[in-house]
Amino acid sequence: GVVCTGPMLLGVVLLLGVMFLCGITGGLRHSRELLVCMITYTLLASLTVTSFLSMVVTRFIADQLYEENYEAVLPSFWGSSGLMLIVGGILYGVFLIFSGAGLLDGFLCFGFFGELIITWNAMSYLTAIKDYRGIMLSFLAAIAVTFLSGALLLFLGISHVEALMAAVCIGYGIMLLWDVVLLYEYFPQSDISAFLFLRWADEFLPLAFT
Questions:
Q1: pLDDT in tens, 86-145
Q2: Cβ neighbour number for residue 8 with a 10 Å cutoff
Q3: CA-CA distance, 145 to 142, in Å (whole number)?
Q4: Measured between alpha carbons, how far is 128 from 150 in angstroms, rounded to an integer?
Q5: What is the pTM of this model?
Q6: If you ran DSSP here, which 8-state letter would residue 188 be given?
Q7: Which candidate, 179, 165, 54, 76, places its Cα nearest to that of 113?
């Protein structure tokens, strides 16, 4: 249950932690509200994009594992991630342009969005192979790194919004790397097409809309 709701649970925990860190270090209310908006919109946007392929990809992984075709799994991860990064990146980039966010804030949100796309996609693969312990450890590592790096950046005198948003990016970046390493430990690399999973998208299109 924790793993399945992990993306939103982790988002809530990090959001509360960032608000607490911002408050005890003298951050203005405007800074806290801006952070809430930046993190929440980016989380929701990334989950919306990845949810379209998550069930299709999970079905693809299940079929490949059942057929013991392990070589097709890792290429599909990068294929699906790349597809969602391109489509989602264009849509969220347009949103950020018209959102009124500053250049640095927009850049941090866009980078955070990209990290989340890959992270949530990797979670579908790790859930399929039932590596719940690995997922939980990556969650905990992300939270710890976010708080430590946030405190350090604030100590260096960086403004609250940029410091804490950068810290969130660093924390999720650690989780992204951790999850990808776990995937490479389980699945072999191969030259199979990275877009083979799209056949499953055609065949099981109702899963995408679900």
A1: 999 999 999 999 988 888 999 999 999 999 999 889 888 887 777 778 778 888 888 888
A2: 12
A3: 5
A4: 33
A5: 0.88
A6: -
A7: 165
